[in-house]
Amino acid sequence: MGKKLKNTGLVGLGVVAGIAVSLQFSAMAQRPADPALPLEELRQLADVFGLIKSDYVEPVEDKKLLTEAITGMVASLDPHSAYLDKKAYAELREGSQGKFVGLGIEIGQSEDGYIKIVAPIEDSPAHRAGIKAGDLITRLDSTPVKGLSLDESVKKMRGEPHSKVSLTVLRKDEPELLVFNISREEIHQKSVKGKIVEPGYAWLRIAQFQEPTVDDLAAKIADLYKQDPQLKGLVLDLRNDPGGVLQGAIGVAAAFLPRDSAIVSTNGQLPDSRQTFYGRPEYYLLRNEGDILAKLPAAVKNVPMAVLVNTGSASASEIVAGALQDYKRATIIGTQTFGKGSVQTIRQLTADTAVKLTTARYYTPNGRSIQAKGITPDLQVEENADGDGLNALRLREADLSKHLSNDRDQEAAKTKRDEAEEQLRVLMAERKRKPLDFGSTDDFQLQQALNHLKGLPVQTAKQESKLVQADPVPAKSPIKK
């Protein structure tokens, strides 16, 4: 059996794949202590600490031991809870704000063990240096990347502003390795982009949910309607969107749904984790600067919509897709999503450290839990006309060790893994295929979404091997109660 592939990430975005972060920065010191502490186990912890200090082969700093103990304790809970040291905490805050210090490249792990450039960010240091989509990074400074995890590689590419890093790159059709010496800069990334793909039809992509996402979305929608006031269809692209700030997801869904619609609900141990979030400014605005969504063209509430998703669509992406699906506001097109249905809250410990703790499961307006299950598209359309490529081999939430179970029904069996020879066939085929450029004329799933909005036949998943005739999505439909 071959191994599942890792999802792509953005260098410098704090490796936030699959997280819906509730931006509640509350201090742990303010919370009352539980009087029923396990004293015997705490004594054992103290005993082990003392044994290491007295008997270990070489001295170990107290701070290191205690930090590692905290890290291990939190990490044992689920794949998304974590202790955030000074550097990790700063990276998470930077990522949620849509800015970071780095090179400005979207990366993924290639099947060869190298780092694959998915795309350089426009006008970033990497873009100006000549880095191209499809390049493979073989060395970071003098360190070979083979054997490094994606997270370790990301950390090596981050650093202080104006510091330099050397990338050794393998490029197809180049006879020799290329070396790029690039200075790190603060990158301001727009999480939303879009364009008129053909008269009457627009494509709107959200790469990640950040603090500025709702503002960026509103500005882009206004621009699209300025270009074509008579839009007949809109494709919202959430493929490979790993999630991000919860308020961003609420705002994006609210842009297309009637005001005051329930967007998502959460349930956990604490009273403040058991609530419903609605399409109102108080639920999606992070700053008191007026409701930017109120200025959108009225037509955006009714324009026929399709939403593109894949295995890389996680957490906040699934909140949006699930809400639009439950209200029958849009047709969900693509392949099964990641299945990340939990919310992480940031609990600050000191001025520079925090705990990212899973505090609740989230549910769609119809009460569906997405945890370890994901969103099932209304129309199963694979990435390419001849199959789903590397998406079929990616990790999903249900594949992660210690993942949170789905509490609304019995957890579905893990996705059946392909036989080794079939995986090898897919990998070999993907090596010959150029990286997919979302939104391009070669974007097969986008073309099928446009066909659906026009009422034309749609080529569904390869295993189904059929065309379906689909009417455009109705603008609104009452939700089940």
From TrEMBL:
InterPro entries reported for this sequence: ClpP/crotonase-like_dom_sf, CtpA/B_N, PDZ, PDZ_6, PDZ_sf, Peptidase_S41A, Tail-specific_protease
Zinc among keywords: no
UniProt keyword terms in alphabetical order: Hydrolase, Protease, Serine protease
GO MF, one example: serine-type peptidase activity
Domain PDZ: 89-158
Spans annotated as Disordered: 462-481
Pfam family, one: CtpB_N-like
GO biological process, one term: signal transduction
Gene Ontology CC: one annotated term: outer membrane-bounded periplasmic space
CDD domains: cpPDZ_CPP-like (cd06782), Peptidase_S41_CPP (cd07560)
Similarity remark: Belongs to the peptidase S41A family.
Full protein name: PDZ domain-containing protein
Organism listed in the record: Pseudoduganella rivuli
